[in-house]
Amino acid sequence: MNNYEQGIKNIFWTGNSKKKYLFIFVAHPDDFEIGCLGTVLKLQESSVNFSIKLLTFCASNEIRKKEQEASIESLNRLGINIELIMFNYIDTILLESISDIKKDIQKYENKIKALGGDICVITHHCNDRHQDHACINNAVIQVLRNHRVITFRILKYEEEKFVASFYVSLNEHISKNKVAHILKNFPSQHGKNWFRKEVFLSQLRVQGVHANCEFAEVFSIEKMCI
Ligand SMILES: [Zn+2]
After folding, report:
1. Ligand 1 centroid to 56 CA: how many Å?
2. Chain-wide mean pLDDT for the chain?
3. What's the predicted TM-score (pTM) here?
4. Coil, helix or strand for 15?
């Protein structure tokens, strides 16, 4: 493992267990892919061994559910080990179900502990103005009290305060693969003004400027427990 891989590994995981997990909690199908797929593709190219448990909460819509499944199947075929768990909550009104969502997360915390490896939790950031994203952030933070929690930003209609803690530089190949994957696997979203190749690539490029590299994903550290 070179210094670069060691650095990225240390950001996401504290210990030296051979079992490393990313537990990713998102509101909608496509949130994981938009938020951090580039970093996952980069980790996959490294010598870091990890697997992902992805919990997607708003999967009541059959079309969107199938899109999420197809996206993960496609990534599994690339050799990325992702277990997908979906819940049938309804988007835009997720907050009404927050007590049930917290119970779901609590159940998974027990499974998380039983796994016994190094764990990093990834979710939406704490100032996200989207009501469903904010709901998942709150539920995760209130239930998972002693885990490393890293959050990502998804561009939306509103400006919002996001405190960048670190950037993961991406090359052009991974950046374009990420965007192509999103556009291919979530056709139901193509009518949205922000769901554009130019938007996704521009965001990665601007973040790359911030990090003095070509392209980058950005994360905020919500909590570190060492
Ligand atoms: Zn979303």
Report:
1. 10
2. 94
3. 0.95
4. coil
